Amino acid sequence: MTIYVVRPGDTVDTIAASFGISPQSIIYDNQLAYPYPLAVGQALLLTDAAANGNEPSEPPLPYPAYVGGYAYPFISRWVLEQTLPDLSDLFIFSYGFTTEGALLPPQLDDTFMITMAKSSGAAPILTLTPFGPTGQFSNYLITQVVNNESSKQRLIEELTIQIEERGFEGVDIDFEYILPEDRIAFADFVRDVRTAVNALGYPVSVALAPKTSDTQKGLLYEGKDYKLLGEAADYVLLMTYEWGYTHGPAMAVAPINKVRQVVEYALTKIPSWKIHLGIPNYGYDWTLPFVQGTSKAVTIGNVEAVTIAVSQGVSIQFDEISQAPFFNYIQEGIQHEVWFEDVRSISAKFGLVKEYQLRGMSYWQIMQLFRANWLLLADTFDIRSA
Predict the structure, then answer these.
(1) What is the CA radius of gyration of the chain?
(2) Domain 287-337, CATH 3.10.50.10 — does that match?
(3) Fold of the 2-46 domain
(4) DSSP label at residue 74
(5) N or C: which end of the chain has fewer CB atoms below 10 A?
(6) Which of 100, 149, 158, 176 is catalytic?
(7) Are residues 347 and 376 in contact, defined by beta-carbon separation less than 8 angstroms?
(8) Angstrom distance (rounded) from CA 92 to CA 124
(9) pTM
(10) DSSP 3-state helix, strand, coil percentages of the chain (rounded to 5)?
(11) Which pLDDT score is estimated for 136?
């Protein structure tokens, strides 16, 4: 496959002719909308492109990797159907619990997700989160369960019942804002869940905030002990995204230089074969100037971001340090800045997985289809079955 960056004067037809491929393949692979306008600087994935003397005579063998993707029960069945063939694991988001350890299922029925995952050869994974009444992460809930043996054992028992009765094939523990004083108790909780779930023949994973040192301050980081959690779980997910986030200033969501720092720190605490790299499947549209406490970015899809650039008649730029695309535009007198993911930024992240020999990668989230990503992934990796 070839990644081509659109130049002034390019059209789908001229690009197709230059690479000896059909215009329809460009349109389909890159989800272009009729009448198929392009933005200068837009990255296109070209499949079955003519070699033009640039490719090696024998392409490298695909790197074996596990691939996970998070999804809510309100995902489009068509999007899920399109995505499942490229997943090892489908993380169903999410199950909560009470302070007494009673498991709380999602408000919407997730049975179809379990059924579709199994039919596609992907493992349906129960994602456990400590959401309070407001729908936000609650460290109070975490404290009450990980420090209370009866509550903890009840929750573990109800998890195993869900697995046996509903057909889940693993548990993912996504707890955030853990109090520093619960650091060891949380790791013990993960270990206890793993013991019970492993007994059924399935794995347990845990999501880790993107730390770069043992002493990193902040409620997001201090309760997550990489070494202890790496030992407690079968594998971990590095949440290497959200540097650019809803209430922060405009910047890349997952700048490759920052992502690399997290991976390199993680490797000092956890074996590479236990690590999944987190990859975002979204971008943000900020209004400028940024005002702390007031500004709020809008979450957008990667295909949607390109559509905005085309509609506004602006060029897409690419930041070499963060390895991420971005652009600016003005609408109704208001300045906007957009950062998102394209096949160039995704390719850079795939490169880290291979460079550091990681177990694989997991996507937050797969609610919107980004076809070029999955085509590139299937061409780069030998996707392992669950």
Answers:
(1) 21
(2) yes
(3) Membrane-bound Lytic Murein Transglycosylase D; Chain A (3.10.350)
(4) T
(5) N
(6) 176
(7) yes
(8) 7
(9) 0.96
(10) 35, 25, 40
(11) 87
Going by the DSSP 8-state scheme, the letter that residue 86 receives in this structure is G
- H helices within 167-253, ranges in order? 183-198, 226-232
Q: How far apart are CA 168 and CA 91, in angstroms?
A: 10
Burial class (CB in 10 A: 0-12, 13-18, 19+), 79: middle
Short-list 121, 198, 214, 132, CA closest to 159: 198
**Nearest Cα residue to 37 out of 281, 316, 274, 336:** 316
Q: Which tokens is 7 given? A: 């130049």
- Residue found by looking up tokens 């695909």 in the block: 62
Q: How remote is the C-alpha of 296 from its chain's centroid?
A: 21
pLDDT tens-digit map of 150-191: 999 999 999 999 999 999 999 999 999 999 999 999 999 999
pLDDT higher than 80, residue 55: no
Domain over 63-281+342-383 is classified CATH 3.40.50.12780:
no
Q: Is the pLDDT of residue 53 over 50?
A: no
Residue 344, pLDDT score: 98
Q: How far apart are CA 236 and CA 172, in angstroms?
A: 9
DSSP 157-179: HHHHHHHHHH----EEE---S--
> CA–CA separation, 105 vs 300, rounded Å?
27
| Integer angstrom CA distances of residue 330 from 7, 207, 245, 290, 338 | 22, 38, 21, 15, 11
